[in-house]
Amino acid sequence: KTLLGHFTIGGMTCAACVNSVEGILRDLPGVRRAVVALATSLGEVEYDPTVISKDDIVNAIEDAGFDASLVQ
Ligand code: 9UX
Hints:
By secondary structure, the protein is of the alpha+beta class. The chain has helices spanning 15-27, 54-63; strands spanning 3-10, 31-37, 42-47, 67-71. It has a 4-stranded antiparallel β-sheet with strand order 2-3-1-4, with helices on one face. Strand 2 and strand 3 (42-47) form a beta hairpin. The protein binds dioxo(di-mu-sulfide)dimolybdenum (9UX). Dioxo(di-mu-sulfide)dimolybdenum binds at residues 13-14, 16-17, 20.
């Protein structure tokens, strides 16, 4: 089972931030795919909900020093 989560990610100011956030997301257990866009401050993540939750994903982004919130 795979779910799709959308997140707003604040505090990304250059392309390296995007690579950094994508790398953090892709390294999380249960994350299958992650794409982050600088222009829209949006991230799209495919994840296995039996392994990781949307809140876990938000917390991982915030632990890296960015602002994150769930797009419902
Ligand atoms: Mo760019 Mo982002 O120099 O954390 S990597 S601002």
